[in-house]
Amino acid sequence: MSVESMEMVNIIGHMDELDKVSMEIVRLGSLHVVNALNEINQNNFTVMTSEQSTDVLKELSFIKPYKRREEYSDLFKKVEELMNIFGMEKAVKKSYLDKNFDIKSAAEKINEIHEEVSGYSLKIKELSNNIGKMQEVIEYTNSLKDIDLDIKSIKEMEFFDFKIGKLTKENYAKLMDNIENISAIVYEVSQTPKGNVIISITPKILKNEVSRVFNSLNYEEIDIPFEVEGTPENVIYSLNKDIKQNSESIKQCEESIDKIKKGNYVFVDECYSSMKLYDKAQNINNEVACTNEFFYLSGWVPLSQKESFTQGLSIFGDKLVVVFKKQSDVNRTIAPPTKLRNNWFTQPFESIVNMYGTPSYNELDPTSFVAISYIIMFGFMFADVGQGFVFLLAGLIMKYKKSRPNLGGVLSRIGASSMIFGCLFGSVFGNEEVIKPLLIRPMENINQILASGIVLGIIFTSIGFIFSLINAFKRKDLEEGIFGKNGLAGMLFYWIALYTVFNMYTKRPFVLPLGFIKITLIVLLALIVVKEPISNLILKRKPLYKEGTGDYYVESGFGLLETLLSMLSNTISFIRIGAFALNHVGLFVAFATVANMVKSTSASIGVLILGNIIIIGLEGLIVFIQGLRLEYYELFSKYYNGDGQEYNPIRLHYSNI
Description:
The chain has 657 residues and is an alpha+beta fold. Helices cover 59% and strands 10% of the residues. 30% of the residues are buried.
């Protein structure tokens, strides 16, 4: 519903306490950290002028950025590696963080465990690689098992070079096409999905020449160990024996790792949570300014969490100086971060707002308006009880089963809206004979449906003007708020123009003379054109024009034309709400017509089911996008900048365990 109020906090303490303070701030999870050195350079850092801060003031002349401590970065990597090897879930558990964790004493034990476990892990990896190589050799040696020759003797021939390897089918075909030009005997042993396995025998004096040819064809040699002796059948038997021995060795290593895991599971788990806390604390330290004796820390805290934040830091007593400042007391160039505060119903639509941009601190939060307007537009365009229920069900599944609360929340709400409008228009899975409409049937009242879309557009656009006025008031922007095209002058012109067009179209009598209305419209347009000089004149600012007078009026003239066109096009653009409502009905009518043409009952039902699937999937996506388009281009352009910085406190995300 609103942007939560923020206060800046300046924290000063002794360097010996920095890590402890930073870790406590991470635990509290409410400080949006800013660079303290920038704050000090802009003379924005407040120090209490008491006896305890006299030394702090003296030290400010020796200020410098804090250099992050990296001595424990490798330790955290080792903890993560241990968790990977042990198959442990990497989750931060709050219960561990309540204990005093001594990182120095833990480092020695972690290094000891890691050295022992990594030795076993490397051995397992080496043995597994050997098994993989031996299995590959067995696979291809199987093709030679009927040959009664000693492999070792073949490989150790004095005048000939023996190789076994693989070529892709394409490269093997190239080799065979030019075999008469190659000084080697090539024999295909087998074919595999990866290619052809071949053996080659080459005179050693021509080995290099043949190797160049093979390499050009991406030949992949299969290495057969020299220590293996005997026929291919003997080789296979020997390799299988080695594989069995290696597998037993792997099993022994795994048992050793499992034993270490059981004895150190809790310790490693605790180290992970504590090291995560320490690592996050170092992120805070990156923004710290310091001297040899003191550190200086700045950030923003939501007003609602100020008390708990202060209480959390109270454990340090007089070791810290903590000073809060209201936003009005901070340099105007420093904008607070934005923390949105919305109720359960509108909160999922924050994601739609943030896709466009985060509201600035002094900007009105549009989430509630976006939620209501988007729900109405989608329901109007996609009115169906059955299809809306599918969206509602999908949203609940996304929220509670897939842990997607924002997307799930949006889907469930627009699904409920579709069901409500489905009751108003009398549609259940496209069928208009199941229930009677509580309002009207779209196809029987086409003009009313199209006109309703424009009426909704006028209402939403008018609310957009009101939002723009409020935002201008919050910014104290007289020029845009009173005389701008989206300010008071623009809003009055829009309403009077609509009133005039409506009365002329319906031939109703005007309350005021038409001539007076025309003069009023011209005056309002003139105010929009001269908004800059008249604002500067009222505020007694000089010069009246930021740029040349001629350039200003040329630009304002084109801007006025763009304003008139955009007001017209933006309003007419909302006719698409009614058009898509009609399209939704018409698309199902098309599928129903095809279903009636099919003679088979089962085929007819299949067509209707397919039609609903296409409508829910394809048209649902199109309507979803069209709703976003109307929000972003027709409404946000009136009142919303979205150039704020999102509130992002440094905190840990805890496991539910």
